[in-house]
Design a protein that fits this description.
The structure holds three protein chains of three kinds.
Chain A: E1 6-15, E2 20-29, E3 34-38, H1 45-52, E4 60-69, E5 72-73, H2 79-89, E6 90-93, H3 97-100, H4 107-119, H5 127-136, H6 142-146, H7 155-168, E7 173-177, H8 185-201, E8 206-211, H9 214-220, E9 223-228, E10 231-237, H10 238-243, H11 248-256, E11 309-310, E12 319-320, E13 347-360, E14 369-382, E15 386-390, H12 397-405, E16 412-417, E17 420-421, H13 432-437, E18 438-441, H14 445-448, H15 455-465, H16 472-481, H17 498-509, E19 516-520, H18 528-545, E20 548-553, H19 556-562, E21 565-570, E22 573-579, H20 580-584, H21 590-597, E23 646-648, E24 654-656, H22 661-665
Chain B: H1 16-21, H2 29-46, H3 48-51, H4 61-64, H5 84-120, H6 122-136, H7 140-151, H8 155-182, H9 185-192, H10 197-233, H11 245-253, H12 261-288
Chain C: H1 2-27, H2 31-39, H3 45-55, H4 61-73, E1 103-104, E2 109-110, H5 111-146, H6 151-164, H7 168-182, H8 200-231, H9 234-241, H10 246-258, H11 260-283, H12 289-299, H13 302-330, H14 332-335
Antiparallel strand pairs in C: 1-2
Helix pairs in contact in C: 1-13, 2-3, 5-6, 5-8, 5-11, 6-8, 7-8, 7-11, 8-10, 8-11, 9-10, 11-12, 11-13, 12-13
Classes of the chains: A alpha/beta, B mainly alpha, C mainly alpha.
Bound molecules: iron/sulfur cluster (SF4) (2 copies).
One iron/sulfur cluster is lined by residues 590, 626, 628-629, 632, 634-636, 639, 644, 657-659 of chain A.
Chain lengths: 674, 289, 337
């Protein structure tokens, strides 16, 4: 066996005087291997990457264990030695590409720094090599990119530049820390397939790919390590870990995903109770015990450190850190089924031809352009229904949510609710009734509650606005309804976890009669293991109240799982809408096709369909034409001439495209991976 | 560990009143020292008539021959024989009357303008910002000089000058804070709940923009002490014989070679107040972390 | 980019116009006031009347403001000169020329002449002060910021924080006490008389030192915190993890970005130094326009005050404009749309 490129043994790291955030991590990556490290926030997965480069900010230090990169001990290397390693043997790609590049230096110059390191200032001109690498990361016109400033590129382009920068170091070890977080799903898929391609062609480069997204990991990794609370709890090949998970945490996590094939759409998601623990709360023994469905008192809570052991019945190299490996059952099915909903007929909101555009301004009064957020958008939400708005960032889905809530007003069009047109009525001018009837749950749990107020005060105020008395009993009932501990009312938001804050936000939304709840990406900022519980909570309360939900999301699996109807938006235009089965079935609008192609289940055998590439610069945008034209892979000559018609089937499935539905029944052939 | 033992996130920007009540402020050494100095001078200013050994304007001809500290005059006298200790004690009154008045007025005007500009945006914001730019073009001292040329020196002119020169800066800070908070979900939630702008500004925004504002208040109080001292020093302060620390320094400068204490002691008094303000600002900054 | 610059230029011209109107409105607040200020406290009622008529002091404020502007640019004659007023004021340049600020009542001379005597001295003082402040604070600020938390940083930070707590007049008094009164190395006043036993150079040392100490302490702090902020940026991490030498990271990645904020502050500091100049000139009896302003204020010489304030306003607005310009030039995010 060749020497591993990265070898980590018993790594422990602590920040300041705090408890260890890494509690003994062992990990090896062989040349040419791609290792996927999965974990939720706080699991310590990013700390591993920084420790490998010995670049722990915030008073972090290695308190135990050893890291060898290419045989060099990182812990004892000199500063100069480390620099040698960083520029030549390892390179890293970070989470947010927008801040990873120097804003005051052209891309070309920043890229040239790495090859210059190797050749010295007077060395050969690195331009050819740079152009070559830029082509490898799929830039069609790399010469143009060299002269650009970072702020002139999109997020996906920037991340490809950062990857190119890393590749220019020709590293033996490439570290990628959540490289696609914050990018749109389609771009995310592109970056992931690029990483896979690089891995396949690299000839011996080892890759450590860190992510919280099991689908992405399945797509890129050969081997997977699952992290929980500062330890790797399960490790094996991608197929072993994802297809036959041994550790109860991995099993529960996979089972809780909305794409889980065992749980048909509409059924209850499997939830994991509790919260991701903090390092200082951990005792020896199993860190997952408080949340584990297979926890055995007297066995799992004994105060002893746990070791990795081989997963029985699985192949070589599949190990997990659990005392019940042999006899742990599969996660139990949820006891309760989805509550029956009253779908009484009739509509809560009827949106017709809604238009909204903004003037984009640059700093210092620079030039302005028009951004269309909604262009003749029409849809209706039935009483008790769940309707999802899907689309990438910039599709206008949040703008529509804001208009319905009264945080913004439409330029034209109507939205009828409770017999009034609310499209032009900001919240300040709405009646109490109207306000209580349409409530919103926001995306970011950290900002959704005022940090200066106690939960009790927030809920009391919401109850009063909803026309109730706001008594202590009512507050307590609300706290209970969202399954928060009774003392939560006395706490301030700072003392709550993300999931708990989101529960308070849900309680706030349901404080009145709530005919329509607008849920703007309510779980996308939460840890994977708590998402399912929040979604189910939302559905339960909705069923009790008989409310309708407008669910804004980019998570198509989740949308498919919970919605009755789906509206697909692209740049403010509805390109497709219909029942969930219609939108996720065929015929399919080219944009929906692209979105669905980017969905990758946590299955290493899934073949990602690669749509035929389209020459982006060949088509120009023009008002009135199909907004999807510049990115469309099914473009027709007609598309550049006239706006597409909206065709509505007898069953109410609407598609806005020049292709006849029959053409769109046929999915394009997929390009098989590797 | 149970589900009740939560992973908590740090209260990154909880309201400043919260932290004051928790007396975390007093755990900061610089804040404690700064506060102590300010409280000391405040007590001195309020109790001046009872604490001061002499009338600050009474002249002791015998002492004027040798103004050095003596048993009768602990800190000595000034050149014409007025007790220096008493004058410094009464000087505190001037400082602690002019400064709080002017800084309070500057913050009131600035905070309201900043809140309004940040919240309403559009024309309100543009007009307020331009007005601020115009005021910022006048250096504080120059503005005051113009005012006294026309209206003569008075307490209110100092208050107006300080207000006009400091309010634009306060407004900018406040506006930035409001803009940072305005788009946050909890403010949107309040708007969506149909809360009135006044309620939102008072209950949702103000408690969360307090810390930077308080820090700025401390710093600006320090600057104001410097400015008022400077005015006194230049002979533009309150009309004599009100004892005024800045004025006392200038009276002593000519005797610097022989009796340096006449200038240095009041100079030290001014400096101690400025240092206290800066320490307090540091303390607030620390606790905000 | 040219559009951004023109846009800002227009804005600042507008600000200057409004500010000068305010200045005029405040100084000539009450019409009677102006005439009696010109004539002094012993003037007769009838004299005040006839002067007011002659100068049009009873006209509406805005008319008088326009006339004043017109006089400034040489379109409207100054009626105060010549034998007709009986004040004995005369201007060899005539009543109408560009830059006509009118007469200084205190000195009984055209303001242009008064300024000519004093202006150069103040320029010398400020040029020295700024010329020393900028390099000193850049070096100290960058050193402290780059070595955040080190002993060097702590020394620089504590010193600068303490110095910013000291009013300039206190700094001046202390310096005079040590270097003039106690050691006798330098003069305690700087009248710049040619016959003085101290050379002009030695007379400049203390005034310049006071300005430099006060302003460089402040600028150093700004530079330091900007460097510290920039160091915490992810792109600096990228540069370091690329394996670049620390020096290259510092020069190319940190400093370029860390200088954007302080440049504006340094330019605004010029404005501040002008205020400091009044204090310093007063203390050291330095014959510049700062002391002139003070004398004018105490005398009630409104025309001189107007002229000097207008100069101060122009400097303030120009530096604000230059600050914005520097920002646009340094930050490609604004420059390149
Ligand atoms: S050791 Fe026990 S508590 Fe921990 S994962 Fe295994 S079964 Fe669950
Ligand atoms: S109308 Fe044309 S460009 Fe638009 S989606 Fe259909 S095929 Fe593509």
């Amino acid at each position: 066996m060749t020497r591993p490129v990265l070898e980590i043994a018993g790594l422990r790291v602590a920040y300041g005087d705090g408890a260890d955030v890494l509690r003994g991590v062992d990990l090896t990556i062989a040349p040419g291997e791609t290792y996927g490290l999965v974990g939720e926030s706080g699991s310590g997965k990013s700390t591993v990457a920084y420790a490998v480069q010995r670049y722990l900010g915030g008073g972090g230090r290695i308190t135990g264990g050893r890291i060898l990169v290419d045989g060099t001990d990182i812990g004892s290397a000199s500063e100069a030695g480390l620099r040698q390693l960083r520029g030549r043997r390892m390179a890293m790609v970070h989470q947010n590409p927008a801040t990873a590049l120097n804003p005051a230096m052209r891309i070309g110059r920043q890229l040239a720094e790495t090859p210059r390191l190797r050749s010295g200032e007077g060395g050969a001109d690195p331009t050819a090599a740079i152009l070559d690498v830029l082509r490898r990361v799929r830039f069609q016109y790399p010469e143009q990119i060299l002269r650009r400033w970072p702020h002139q590129l999109s997020g996906g382009q920037l991340q490809r530049v950062v990857i190119a920068m890393a590749l220019l170091a020709r590293p033996a070890l490439l570290l990628l820390d959540e490289p696609t977080t914050g990018l749109d799903a389609t771009v995310e898929g592109e970056v992931a397939s690029l990483v896979r391609e690089i891995a396949d062609q690299s000839g011996g480069m080892a890759i450590l790919y860190i992510s919280h997204n099991l689908g992405l990991i399945a797509r890129v990794a050969d081997r997977i390590g699952v992290m929980y609370a500062g330890q790797i709890v399960e490790e094996g090949t991608a197929r072993q870990v994802l297809k036959a998970p041994a550790h109860p945490y991995t099993r529960a996590l996979l089972a809780s995903l909305p794409g889980n094939p065992l749980i048909p759409p509409g059924q209850r998601l499997r939830t994991i109770p509790g919260l991701v623990p903090r390092p200082e709360d951990l005792a020896p023994g199993c860190a997952f015990a408080p949340r584990c469905y297979a926890m055995q008192p007297g066995l799992c809570d004994r105060l002893m450190p746990l070791d990795m052991s081989a997963a029985p019945g699985s192949g070589r190299g599949h190990v997990a850190r659990c005392l019940r490996l042999g006899d742990a059952p599969q996660p139990p099915a949820e006891a309760a089924t989805v509550m029956p909903r009253r779908r009484a007929g009739g509509r809560v909101v009827d949106v017709v031809d809604l238009c909204r555009s903004f003037t984009a301004r640059r700093a210092f009064g620079g030039r302005a352009g028009r951004v269309v957020a909604a262009d003749r958008v029409s849809f209706a939400i039935g009483k008790g229904d769940i309707l999802s708005l899907v689309g990438e960032s910039g599709s206008g889905k949040s703008t529509i949510a804001r208009i319905l809530t009264g945080l913004d007003i439409a330029d034209s069009g109507t939205a009828m609710a409770l017999g009034t047109d609310i499209a032009h009525r900001p919240a300040e001018t709405r009646t109490k009734e109207l306000i209580a009837a349409i409530r919103i749950v926001f995306q970011n749990p950290d900002n959704t509650l005022n940090p200066a107020h106690r939960v009790g005060r927030i809920l009391r105020r919401a109850l009063r606005r909803g026309g109730r008395a706001g008594s202590a009993e009512e507050v307590a009932a609300l706290v209970e309804a969202v399954r928060l501990p009774a003392d939560a009312a006395d706490r301030r938001p700072g003392a709550l976890s993300g999931g708990q804050k989101q529960r308070v936000a849900i309680a706030r939304a349901f404080a009145g009669r709530a005919d329509l709840i607008i849920a703007d990406e309510p779980v996308s900022a939460l840890d994977v293991s708590v998402q399912a519980a929040i979604v189910e909570l939302l559905r339960d309360i909705q069923a009790q109240h008989g409310s309708a939900i407008l669910f804004v999301s980019h998570d198509l699996e989740l949308v498919r799982h919970i919605s009755d109807r789906v509206v697909v938006l692209y740049r403010g235009t509805v390109v497709e809408q219909g029942s969930t089965a219609q939108v996720f079935g065929l015929p399919r609008h080219p944009y929906t096709e692209m979105l669905l192609a980017a969905v990758h289940p946590p299955d290493p055998d899934h073949v990602a369909p690669e749509l035929p590439a389209c020459n982006e610069s060949a088509a120009t945008e023009a008002p009135g034409l199909c907004p999807f034209l510049p990115r469309c892979h099914r473009r027709l000559p007609l598309c550049a001439a006239t706006p597409p018609p909206e065709r509505v089937s007898a069953e109410g499935h609407a598609i806005r495209c020049h292709h006849a539905p029959a053409d769109l029944m046929q999915l394009l052939p997929t390009v098989t991976k590797g | 560990m149970t589900a009740g033992a939560d992973r908590t996130t740090t209260p990154a920007r909880a309201g400043f009143l919260v932290r004051l009540r928790g007396s975390r402020l007093l755990r900061s050494r610089s804040a404690t020292v700064g506060l102590a100095i300010l409280v000391f001078w405040l007590v001195v200013a309020i109790g001046a008539p009872w604490i001061a050994p002499y009338d600050p304007t009474a002249i002791d001809f015998a002492a004027s021959a040798d103004p050095s500290p003596s048993a009768a005059h602990w800190l000595g006298t000034d050149a014409i024989g007025r007790d220096l200790l008493s004058r410094i004690i009464f000087g505190a009154r001037t400082t602690f009357l002019v400064i709080p008045l002017s800084v309070f007025s500057a913050f009131l005007v600035g905070a309201i303008a900043g809140l309004a500009g940040g919240w309403y945006g559009g024309w309100t914001d543009t007009i307020l910002a331009r007005a601020g730019d115009v005021m910022l073009a006048f250096p504080a001292l120059v503005l005051y000089i113009i005012l006294i040329t026309t209206f003569g020196p008075s307490l209110w002119n100092i208050v107006i000058a300080v207000t006009l020169t400091y309010a634009p800066g306060v407004a900018r800070l406040m506006r930035g804070q409001v803009l940072a908070v305005k788009g946050l979900e909890y403010v949107l939630a309040a708007r969506a709940a149909g809360e009135s702008p006044i309620y939102i500004m008072a209950a949702e925004i103000l408690p969360n923009v307090g810390t930077p504002l308080i820090v700025d208040l401390c710093l600006r109080t320090g600057y104001a002490v410097i400015l008022v001292g400077t005015l006194g020093f230049l002979g533009l302060g309150l009309p004599p014989p009100t004892p005024d620390w800045g004025g006392m320094v200038v009276e002593g400068v000519n005797l610097m070679t022989i009796y340096p204490h006449i200038a240095l002691l009041p100079a030290a008094a001014v400096t101690s107040v400025v240092v206290a303000c800066n320490l307090l600002a540091d303390g607030f900054r620390e606790t905000a972390r | 980019m040219a559009r951004i610059v023109l846009n800002r230029l227009g804005q600042f011209a507008f600000i200057l116009l409004i500010a000068s109107f305010l200045l005029f409105a405040v100084t000539e607040f009450s019409p009677g006031n102006v005439a009696s200020k010109i004539l002094g406290p012993y003037a007769l009622e009838s004299q005040v009347r006839s002067l007011s008529d002659r100068l049009g002091l009873d006209d509406p404020l805005f008319t008088r403001y326009l006339r004043w502007l017109g006089m400034l640019v040489g379109l409207v004659p100054n009626e105060l000169g010549g034998p007709a007023t009986g004040l004995g004021l005369s201007d060899p340049r005539g009543a109408q020329y560009f830059g006509n600020f009118g007469f200084s009542l205190m000195q009984g001379r055209p303001i242009v002449d008064v300024l000519a005597d004093r202006f150069g001295h103040t320029v010398t003082l400020t040029v020295w002060a700024i010329g020393l402040t900028v390099p000193i604070s850049l070096v100290l600020g960058v050193l402290a910021g780059m070595t955040e938390g080190s002993a060097l940083d702590r020394i620089i930070s504590v010193t600068t924080v303490s110095l910013t707590s000291l009013p300039e007049f206190v700094v001046a008094v202390l310096l005079i006490f040590v270097f003039a009164a106690s050691l006798g190395w330098l003069p305690g006043t700087s009248p710049l008389d040619p016959g003085d036993r101290w050379s002009v150079g030695s007379q400049l040392v203390l005034p310049v030192a006071v300005l430099v100490i006060a302003s460089s302490a402040y600028v150093t702090r700004i530079v330091r915190s900007s460097v510290v902020d920039t160091l915490a940026q992810p792109f600096v991490r990228t540069a370091r993890l690329k394996g670049l030498a620390p020096m290259r990271v510092a020069m190319l990645h940190v400093l370029r970005n860390a200088m954007i904020a302080p440049v504006t502050v340094i330019l605004l500091q010029i404005n501040w130094i002008l205020t400091g100049v009044v204090v310093v000139e007063a203390i050291f009896a330095y014959p510049g326009i700062g002391r002139l302003m003070l004398e004018a204020a105490l005398f009630g010489d409104i025309y001189l005050i107007q002229a000097l304030t207008l100069i101060a306003l122009s400097v303030a607005v120009t530096t604000q404009f230059l600050g914005d310009l520097a920002y646009v030039l340094l930050d490609p995010r604004i420059r390149v749309a």
